[in-house]
Write a structure and sequence with these properties.
By secondary structure, this protein is an all-alpha fold. It has four helices and no strands. It has one domain (5-107). Helix 1 runs antiparallel to helix 2 and helix 2 (46-72) runs antiparallel to helix 3. The longest helix is centred in the N-terminal third of the chain and has 34 residues, at 5-38. The model has no long low-confidence stretch (mean pLDDT 89).
Length: 108
């Protein structure tokens, strides 16, 4: 172990805890949205329903990014940097309106 392994272990634990919390929140929101699709109760509260839909839409990406950061912090700095650049690229392209619809068009 190198001299910088202490901060790597601490950062890995931080990403681990954040990832676990976000995964639990995501599954709860997803389950509530599925239940609401059968027996509407959340969709009656517009702001809450919109917040849940946003969490459902972007939650998987956020969890994947956090888990990826947790994995890359254990590797060398170059892999960590490349992964951070890829996350930034994905986030930037989310702001282009046609990108997401083109992606969904490829899937369906």
């Amino acid at each position: 172990m190198g001299k910088d392994s202490g901060w790597k272990n601490k950062l890995e634990k931080v990403f681990d805890i954040i990832g676990e919390i976000l995964a639990v929140i995501y599954i709860i929101v997803f389950a509530l949205l599925l239940i609401d699709a059968q027996w509407p109760f959340i969709s009656n509260v517009d702001w809450l329903y919109n917040a849940f839909k946003i969490i459902w839409q972007y939650g998987a990406f956020v969890i994947a990014a956090i888990v990826g950061l947790e994995a890359m912090v254990k590797r060398n700095f170059l892999f960590f940097l490349i992964f951070c650049i890829l996350i930034a690229l994905c986030v930037i392209f989310l702001f282009f309106p046609g990108t997401y619809s083109n992606l969904l068009g490829l899937v369906s």
